[in-house]
Amino acid sequence: MGWLEAIVLGVVQGLTEFLPISSSAHQSIVGQLFFGGHDPGAAFTAVSQLGTETAVVVYFAKDIGRIISRWFGSLFGRVPRNDPDARIGWLVIIGSIPIGVLGLLFENAIDTTLRNLWITVAMLAGVGVLLWVADRVAKNSYELTQLTWLDGVALGFAQALALIPGVSRSGATIAGGLFLGYKREAATEYAFLLAVPAVFISGLFKLKDIPNDPNLAWGPTIVATVIAFGIGLAVIHWLLKYVSKHNFSIFVWYRLALAALVAGLLVGGVLQP
């Protein structure tokens, strides 16, 4: 991987990680179109996501610090176990289990078979339709502090669908939250918080694969990760403001258009599955 490729893919990662349009799909498509026809791979995707998730930690530092403090307090009886922040701490932990377990069980398929662009096309379109339906039936009634244990676990399984490129971690979790009646802002914030443990664990786990991948190098990968952090921070700020006043239709139409474009490029032989 060259420096230009790293810079472009870092920008792509930062722009797409938090929007419900699938960052892994965009990295695969951009990698094939502009950089020698090869997918940057699951290891690069996972490591560059460390940058965007660090942006989440920075942006929500005050909230995350409070949640961790109240969670620890609940362990030692200094904070009631039903404290909203302590509950969110537990829910993030429990909700992260599905993607961790499934990620380990299907690691080989995630790195190879599931990165087929025809699967990506199907997921872009399918989850786009799902997000559109969720947006239309959403009650937009519940705040994040009202998240139940059952709903938290259900959203953990929704997040796990993002192991398939094209699904979108935020898209699947937000759609699940909308179906369960949560406000757009609450579903979006929980999607951000829920992703932190899973992405950090996955990224750190995949660090070992960087030296063994002939297409990757430490320098460009680090540059891409740093760029993803800076752009991701701005995107978080923008998205939270956007969803407070708008629905997700713009992202639905984007997903469908991108799915149609990629399908056309695959049929025309410009892209390889």
Low-confidence stretches: none
Residue-averaged pLDDT: 88
* Principal-axis shape: globular
Estimate what percentage of residues fall within beta strands. Answer: under 5%
- Major beta sheet summary: none
Specify the number of helices. 13
Helix content: over 70%
Element-level helix/strand string: HHHHHHHHHHHHH
- Computed CA radius of gyration, to the nearest angstrom: 18 Å
Total E-strand runs: 0
Distance between the termini: 20 Å
Structural class: mainly alpha
What does this protein structure show overall?
This protein is mainly alpha-helical and 273 residues long. 72% of the residues lie in helices and 0% in strands. The chain contains 13 helices and no strands. The mean pLDDT is 88.
Quick synopsis:
This protein has helices at 3-16, 23-34, 42-59, 61-75, 84-95, 97-105, 107-111, 117-137, 149-160, 169-179, 184-206, 218-243, 249-267. The protein is mostly helical and 273 residues long.
List the helices and strands and how they pair.
Layout: H1 3-16, H2 23-34, H3 42-59, H4 61-75, H5 84-95, H6 97-105, H7 107-111, H8 117-137, H9 149-160, H10 169-179, H11 184-206, H12 218-243, H13 249-267
Helix pairs in contact: 1-2, 1-12, 3-11, 3-12, 4-5, 5-9, 5-11, 6-9, 8-10, 8-13, 9-10, 10-11
